[in-house]
Amino acid sequence: MLRALAPLGDLDRVREQTGRFLERAAPPGTGGGTWLPASEEDERDGSFVLKLELPGYPADSIDIEVEDGRLTVTGDLPEEDRARVLSRRQGRFVFRTGLPTGADPERCRATLDSGVLTVTVPRAARQRRRRIDIGPGPAAQRHGTSGHPHENDGMSPVEAHNTFVAGATAQASEPHTPRP
Known about the structure:
The chain has helices at residues 7-25, 138-143, 157-173; strands at residues 39-44, 47-53, 62-67, 70-76, 92-98, 109-113, 116-122. Strands 1-2-7-6 form a 4-stranded antiparallel sheet, with no helix packed on it. Strands 3-4-5 form a 3-stranded antiparallel sheet. It is built from 3 helices and 7 strands. A hairpin with a 2-residue loop joins strand 1 and strand 2. By secondary structure, the chain is an alpha+beta fold.
């Protein structure tokens, strides 16, 4: 699949992937900061699809936001839901990624099934090329005309243009005499 080159977007993606790699290298339950869930990003069936592994996290402890072309997923497992033996990630997590060009965040949807959060962001409908007609301007609307200076003299638009240009050229070539 071909993608448009987006140097800053690609740099953000490398930074995010490096952070995810380093976070995964630490054993579960270490440190007091946030962690990054295992993730999978894909484009299929005209949609951007993100999957995050969040075992033990109920849907009401997860927030998903889209702003300025970025998708952010955050969550926090309440203290009472944490286990005494740490064999999986717990606590607060933050996951951020850029959305591809053309994504439609208004139609974003998410599901949580068996500890896997799936966020689907469809692409916006392709804008088709269309012709735009030119209507009369405000002056023409006030005077009840189409706004074309030669609308009733039987000239074609090209003839009217040539007449206008010839008239302007003739006026410019006349010698200027100052008025007394």
